[in-house]
Amino acid sequence: MSTSADQAPGTAPGRDLAGLTALVTGGASGIGAATAALLTARGARVAVLDRDPAGAPAGTYAVAADVTDDAAVRAGVAEAVAELGGLHILVSNAGIGAIGTVEDNADDEWLRVLDINVLGMVRTARAALPHLREAAAVRPGSASITNTCSIAATAGLPQRALYSASKGAVLSLTLAMAADHVREGVRVNCVNPGTADTPWIGRLLDQAEDPAAERAALDARQPMGRLVSADEVAAAIVYLASPAAASVTGTALAVDGGMQGLRLRPA
Ligand code: NAD
Q1: What is the residue range of the signal peptide feature (predicted)?
Q2: Does the pTM exceed 0.80?
């Protein structure tokens, strides 16, 4: 088997996404930024849509839009498509956290989080699908949507009622969309990260009395003794979006260090 000069065995597969175009929502921080950077490194032309786009990775085209604003999402997707010259890959990743039991969050907080985490993905998909269908018609196998879900969708985590419900909806939405668009050549999958080392987790830890001790305790609770990295989640998203996953649709890929699947005996 021969390998090209920039593709050593077992390493990143070079610029295999050259000629493809991608839009990443929430791409200015954490998992989204790592995904936008990896897509760019793999040769795709990438736009980032974020309500706070300052952190969009170098080489990407940044669009400021809030996924709760349907008109802004439509305009933002149109702007990105015009800039990139089309759209093959949508990574719908913008989302926020919420802590508490059902008794802790009032209706307006539920509606605010569901508006971002669930309807945000619906709005973005609605705006992107005509372009993805077009891409699939011209280049079969190239069009995909990958949603950032969470192991909270299926794991039964304490103090995460609202967040888990929002990600449960993302999981069901992903499966339903995969069925609706499979014959159009648009694959739809999601990744389920465990606790990932992003600015979001940093902000949560900063609220603790002793952030360093809290971080060590969080690491210790993971089966692997560490959080998953944003780059590791990005690698899974880029796999699902790539031609290597041409037969993969309606799948949730966990990147959680074994958090959900393993049943470890207490030490
Ligand atoms: P992050 O806070 O580092 O990044 C989120 C990005 O989304 C930010 O750039 C933010 O500006 C953008 N964003 C938020 N609300 C938006 C809105 N209404 N409109 C447009 N952009 C908006 O967070 P992260 O940890 O990288 O999380 C990214 C995704 O991963 C989220 O969907 C989250 O639910 C999911 N996730 C994260 C973890 C984790 O432990 N970090 C675990 C599982 C799932």
Answers
A1: none
A2: yes
